[in-house]
Amino acid sequence: MKSKASINSHPIHPMLVSFPIAFFTGTLLFDVLAIVQENDGYWQTGLYLEAAGIAAAVFAAVPGIIDYVATVPPKSSGKKRATRHALLNAGMLVLFILALVLRGDRLYMPFLIIGLELAGMVLLVFAGWMGGTLVYRNQIGVDPRYAGAGKWKEEFLQGDGPVIVAEENELGLNQMKLVHLKGQRIVIGKTEEGYVAFEDRCPHRGGSLAGGPLICGTVQCPWHGSQFNVKTGAVYAGPSKEGIRVFPLVEANGKIYLNYHQRD
Ligand code: FES
What we know:
This protein has 264 residues and is of the alpha+beta class. It contains four helices and 14 strands. β5 (176-181) and β6 form a beta hairpin. The two termini are 29 Å apart. The relative contact order is 0.11. FE2/S2 (inorganic) cluster is lined by residues 202, 204-207, 221, 223-226, 239-240.
């Protein structure tokens, strides 16, 4: 899924996270050195690094939150993983803030401060591990469009009754776009037999189908490869055992209409 917080298709969150990682690692190293060598200068450096790490972490969290809300597919394994990633990072931040607050008492509780920072680093490593999985497995922030898929398109539509979801010549063959209508994510695609509309959610683990390839009336989930007939919704290949929901479209006067109804 293409990131909503990006510059020229480059997601901002992964660009920024290297700063708090570097600052917090430096904090721990300088604090340990300060205690081993009884060096106040190192302790002071650790303080500056810790403050910089906290500021950088808060700054990096902003595009992360935007992607969490707007990019990670809802009701998916990726969303659960992103929630754990966010909670681990929040816990890590609290530990470093606590360590910063207690720094004035280095003479009395240096090992408590080092312990808090060490625990923060452990959380940071696990959070980073999950962040990597979110990118490399769940493709969050990745635009996995195959050749000929066209430019990524996403629209937020409103209205009751039939809503125009595309123009007749808007998409090329096998191209798709994602529309949001009444809180539902719907993929509009063009096949050899005309336009189709289907739910943007793979029943296996909630992957977004809008980022997968559409070929000969079959869409493939980019997460684990399940394949679906986009006209009937039937599943062709697993791991998904269920099909997808499809929606009827009406073509009139060069426009494609969708009359969406919530499922009972
Ligand atoms: S989420 Fe696993 S195949 Fe789609």
